[in-house]
Write a structure and sequence with these properties.
The complex is a heterotrimer of chains A (about 500), B (about 300) and C (about 300). With about 500 residues, chain A is an alpha+beta fold. Helix content of chain A is about 30%, strand content about 25%. Chain A is built from 17 helices and 19 strands. In chain A, helix 10 (about 285-295) packs antiparallel against helix 12. Chain B has eleven helices and two strands. Classes of the chains: A alpha+beta (about 500), B mainly alpha (about 300), C mainly alpha (about 300). The interface of A and B includes residues 226, 306, 372 and 394 of A.
Chain lengths: ~500, ~300, ~300
């Protein structure tokens, strides 16, 4: 028996220690290490809904247009220029001399094949909805394409940043399944190896058409636990991490190994109030109650004390960085007396019972902490808040869609990285949309007007009206525009990106 | 026969039913001295239970009262600590001492209630399997094996998703997860007892199954059940923290030791006290329960092999 | 013996099928995977189209039947997220978890054997109580807490070990110890009670009476027989180890199948969850079966029981 045990443990040891060590061809000096909280599901970005897939996509693929991180405007990339020929036709000129990683040149045929693949309704492409306004793609010559759209499509240019260009040859010859694990793009890096849920190894594409990336290798490690990510950063194992909780900033800055950087990001946080009575009759169908909630909370204090100033107080759900944002609206200020008075007028002189459905802090930094502070403020004004925390995001999102999240729930919206008011108003405030707990025909009119013209000046006016309407009607409980926090090793230089898309090809060794 | 808990704690081997050997416990000072650890442990547990029961009178603050201007305050004896918050404050400025006291309330309720649920199910099924044997036994033991092999997380997620997160549902999840342990142990004991003369005699006299099981067999198993149940209370308290790690535990803002520990783990690099004090509470409680359980076992039946 | 083996084997089959059915039913109860597969802004038409593509418009039992009849042939379908075969995904992630659990077992034995024997020999002494306390400390410490503590001490402060990851032997030390600490208390108790029981047996007394040295008695006679319950329980523990593995893998960024399973449950990636649950159940159940067989061979009383 003992022998069995001894040989058994020997076997375990052998199994444990004998597994092959990873081959380390690259050295620490020419390698950059970036950490993500969870892995991508696929290397085929249009087949994924994850932000991680967008980030990885930027390294291996190129888009027709990209965002200039300084001006935050969309600028040419693989496309050299675009113009609207009429309300439903756009002409796009393409860059010449660009090569895919397999050596084949990038032409108009690739653009057509890429769009047609995504638009094919018989394929399981999750990005289809984002581009469904495009009816067809027409090849004019090798480096010119025409897009025909279904009605006016004002965010056409914005959406050019949302699709990576794949090669026609790969789509036709290799097929969908192959593409899930083998990205062939035109981007600054090539994929060497993907060890699922563990790490990706990228090597620089030395034939890249644009500026060369400073680091030869990029390792992208998957580290789910936040505490572990921070430990790796300050012990020198990782160079860049994102989504640092505000409370951990001092840990990183005091470590001597790394520092933090923050940037406003395209994500607005607010509390949805069930004005549309989707989950049944509730006090928030009365505008005075919604206003009272807004007057009850001291958002400025919360931003200052809980978030260490990492939030931008707004009077509109439209993010300050998005097209159509109206800076003229002034946010609510805390006024408990006024809040109580409004509640009394609405028929609740002794306060009102409210259920608050809270989601887990998956995207919003410090959500649990700020939520506690908001609830404490609401209580002072007479809202007897019963907190219903749902710790699992899957369950939480399903509840929202299922009309079970009312009368009040925590929410934030990331615009799908489209810097345009339409990208939030349509999804969150148009009657009967999946996430809309607000319904107002006047608002619907404005939203429809805004998306049916290409005249940007007119659109800006329409959106200003929509934001005024939402504010006057206290459509939701206004919070703030979020800021992202990055942890950056002291051996590198890196700018925090406002679109939450980390680009490792912009990281440079730190000058001493 | 060997048995092990659903989450792997108590182990019991009873080739011969332990209960049958139990003599009536006798009290003497010397005997009591042998159980000095157990007595000390019991005193600690009584203190903890007492403070949980009288939490509203003992705790200096409301455990839910938020004060964002005094967040992450260190314990009183450290630089920057104040006497108002002896153990410091948490990430939204709630008093940690009050939360630990109230958290004990929730954790103990969960522990005791979940054990009541799991022991009831487990004992009934164990008795049925052991007493009726044959096909009934096979079916129940297969069920036990399914339970032992089934991913607990999946079960927890399903219950939370369908019933919503609440204290009661947490108790249901933990109760369901832990019953196979009791079933295994009770089955083994019952199998042995049912062949004893007094049962055979009872059967010959035409006693009903119910009477035989509940009047004749069950009383012999009480001490085993009590000992396992005691130890499982400690187990359940820790399991709750595992669920909190997955976001499925007791939902904030209600304090429970498990979820305080889970939420505090991000702060271990700077505000270590947030996770440490509830952790310490779990440690002391579990230790005391275990020492008491061991003593209880030795007292009820020195030969019971747990 | 043959009948016993057959009976156990039959049970094994029923357990695996039962688990797959339970898992399937529960996944359907949790929610709607299409909601998670599509972008948040997808419309109703997209939703319907996708629903149909995945075959979710059919009743649950039809879906299960389709799944089961294919699974028997080793085809668990393609992951809805990655469009790669679920079987490949699960198999790819299996080795790290097996390495981790094995290393954890070894660590547990290294801690538990000496302490358990010591506690048994010095029963009711201070040493025994200290060992109990250590064991309780081990179980009272949630493993995520222990894991993060180890990282802070050994990676951040001492810079002696890599904080997380997978690859070299250094990467093994902290996760293996963490998981070992999770399992060790139970093993220690077992060793202790096993040795105590056997030390009271007649043949040990005989050996002692014959003048055999105390060390020889302990090692040769007592420990050997105490192994049976330990092996049994370690077999059963294997399933429970996976629970510990979920946390250990998460904390140490270990690319194993335990976290894959949890993630797939959250994503409601039915094919992957099904495949993982069935394969893991198969492994656990086979380990238990082997253990039962071994113990049954050694101790005939059990197979008659």
């Amino acid at each position: 028996m003992r022998r069995t045990l001894v040989s058994g443990s020997a076997l375990f040891l052998l199994l444990a220690l004998g597994c092959p060590p990873a081959a380390d061809a690259q050295t620490r000096d020419d390698t950059l290490v970036y950490a993500l909280q969870s892995d991508v599901d696929t290397w085929d970005p249009p087949n994924s809904v994850l932000r991680e897939a967008i980030i990885l996509g930027y390294h291996v693929f190129d888009h027709l247009a990209v965002r200039d991180l300084k001006t935050r405007r969309v600028v040419p990339n693989l496309a050299l220029s675009w113009k609207a020929l009429n309300d439903t036709t756009w002409e796009v000129k393409l860059r010449q001399g660009v090569k895919f990683h397999d050596g084949s040149p990038f032409t108009a045929r690739d653009v057509k094949a890429t769009f047609e693949r995504v638009l094919d309704p018989t394929k399981k492409m999750t990005a289809r909805g984002n581009h469904a306004k495009i009816k067809s793609v027409e090849i004019v010559d090798d480096h010119t394409v025409k897009f025909h759209t279904d009605g006016p499509y004002p965010i056409f240019v914005e959406r050019l940043t949302a699709l990576v260009m794949a090669s026609e040859k790969v789509i036709k010859d290799k097929g969908h399944e192959w593409m899930q694990e083998h990205p062939i793009g035109t981007g600054p890096y090539k994929l060497v190896k993907w060890d699922r849920k563990h790490e990706h190894l990228l090597v620089r594409n030395d034939e890249y058409w644009g500026p060369k990336a400073p680091y030869k290798y990029v390792r992208i490690r998957i580290i789910p636990e936040q505490a572990t990510q921070i430990a790796e950063l300050i012990s020198g194992g990782v160079d860049v991490i994102k989504a640092v909780p505000p409370d951990q900033i001092d840990v990183i800055n005091k470590s001597g190994q790394a520092r933090t950087a923050s940037s406003p990001i395209l994500r607005t946080a607010f509390l949805q109030l069930d004005q549309a009575a989707r989950s049944g009759p509730n006090p928030f169908t009365d505008r005075r109650v919604r206003q009272a909630a807004n007057l009850a909370t001291d958002m400025d204090g919360i931003i200052k004390h809980v978030l260490n100033g990492l939030g931008d107080r707004v009077a509109t759900a439209v993010n300050p960085m998005a097209f159509g944002f109206d800076a003229g609206l002034k946010p609510y200020k805390q006024d408990l007396a006024a809040a109580k008075k409004l509640l009394a007028e609405a028929g609740y002189p002794n306060g009102v019972d409210i259920v608050y459905n809270q989601g887990p802090p998956t995207v919003e930094p410090g959500l649990l902490q700020t939520d506690e502070a908001i609830v404490a403020d609401l209580t002072k004004a007479g809202f007897r808040v019963k907190q219903n925390y749902v710790g699992d995001n899957t369950v939480f999102v399903a509840r929202i869609k299922d009309s079970k999240a009312g009368p009040m729930f925590s929410f934030s919206w990331g615009y799908y990285s489209v810097f345009d008011a339409d990208a939030i108003l349509y999804d969150i405030f148009k009657c009967k949309e999946t996430y809309a707990y607000y319904c107002n025909p006047a608002m619907d009119d404005l939203i429809i007007q805004g998306r049916s013209t290409l005249d940007q000046k007119k659109r800006a006016e329409v959106y200003a009206k929509a934001q005024k309407l939402a504010f006057d009607d206290a459509a939701y409980l206004f919070k703030w525009g979020l800021r992202g926090v990055w942890g950056i090793s002291n051996r590198v230089d890196y700018q925090a990106p406002p679109d939450e898309v980390d680009r490792m090809f912009l990281v440079t060794p730190r000058k001493k | 026969m060997k048995a092990v808990s659903a989450r792997g704690e108590v182990v019991l081997e009873a080739d011969e039913p332990a209960a049958l050997r139990a003599g009536p416990p006798r009290m003497s000072l010397r005997r009591l001295w042998r159980f000095k650890w157990g007595v000390a442990a019991t005193a600690i547990i009584l203190t903890i239970v007492g403070s949980a029961v009288w939490a509203p009178w003992i705790s200096p603050w409301d455990p839910l009262s938020v004060d964002i201007r005094h967040r992450l305050g260190p314990p009183a004896w450290m630089d920057g600590g104040t006497r108002a918050h002896v153990l410091g404050t948490d990430q939204v400025g709630r008093d940690l001492l009050s939360r630990v006291i109230y958290g004990g309330r929730v954790s103990l309720i969960i522990g005791v209630a979940a054990v009541l649920v799991s022991s009831s199910i487990g004992v009934l099924l164990g008795l049925a399997a052991g007493y009726f044997a044959g096909r009934m036994d096979w079916t129940i033991m297969t069920l036990v094996n399914v339970m032992l092999t089934f991913p607990f997380v999946l079960l927890a997620l399903a219950v939370i998703a369908v019933l919503g997160p609440s204290l009661v549902n947490m108790i249901i999840v933990l109760g369901i997860a832990d019953w196979p342990l009791y079933a295994r142990v009770i089955r083994a004991e019952t199998l042995a007892i049912r062949e004893r003369e007094f049962i055979l005699a009872g059967r010959a006299l035409g006693m009903s199954h119910a009477r035989l099981v509940f009047r004749q067999i069950l009383p012999n198993l009480v001490s085993v059940i009590v000992v396992i149940a005691t130890l499982q209370v400690a187990r359940v308290i820790i399991l709750e923290s595992f669920l909190s790690f997955l976001g499925l535990g007791v939902q904030p803002p209600t304090p429970a030791w498990g979820n305080m520990l889970g939420e505090g783990r991000v702060y271990m690099l700077n505000s270590w006290w947030i996770a440490t004090f509830p952790g310490l509470a779990i440690f002391v409680t579990t230790l005391a329960i275990n020492l008491m359980g061991n003593a209880l076992r030795d007292w009820l039946d020195p030969h019971m092999k747990l | 013996m043959k009948r016993y083996a057959l009976r156990q084997l039959l049970q094994l089959g029923v357990v695996v099928v039962g688990i797959s059915m339970l898992a399937f039913a529960i996944l359907h109860v949790i929610g709607d995977p299409v909601l998670l597969l599509l972008p948040l802004n997808a419309g109703k038409e997209e939703y319907e189209r996708y629903h149909k593509l995945l075959g979710l418009d059919k009743p649950v039992y039809v879906q299960y039947w389709k799944f089961a009849s294919r699974a028997v042939q080793g085809d668990f379908g393609k992951s809805w997220y990655t469009d790669t075969p679920a079987f490949t995904l699960v198999l790819e992630r299996m080795p790290p978890t097996l390495y981790l659990t094995s290393a954890g077992l070894v660590a547990a034995l290294l801690i538990a054997l000496p302490l358990g024997i010591l506690a048994a020999l010095k029963r009711h002494s201070l040493v025994d109580n200290l060992c109990t306390m250590l064991a309780v400390a081990g179980q009272a410490m949630p493993i995520f807490w222990l894991g993060i503590m180890l990282i802070i001490v050994f990676a951040v402060r001492l810079k002696a070990l890599p904080a997380s990851g997978y690859g070299t032997w250094q990467h093994f030390l902290m996760p293996a110890f963490t998981l070992g600490a999770f399992l060790a208390p139970l093993t220690m108790r077992l060793v202790r009670s096993g040795v105590i029981e056997i030390m009271n047996m007649d043949y040990i007394r005989t050996a002692r009476a014959k003048g055999v040295g105390e060390n020889t008695v302990v090692v040769k006679h007592a420990f050997r027989n105490a192994c049976i319950p330990i092996i049994t329980v370690l077999g059963l523990q294997f399933g429970q180890l996976l629970g510990g593995a979920i946390v250990t893998e998460t904390v140490f960024a270990w690319p194993g199948v335990a976290t894959l399973t949890v993630e797939s449950i959250r994503n409601q990636d039915f094919p992957v969850v099904q495949c993982a649950v069935v394969l893991l159940a198969l492994i656990i159940v086979s380990v238990n079966f082997l253990v039962d067989m071994i113990v049954g061979l050694i101790d005939p009383r059990i197979r008659l029981g």
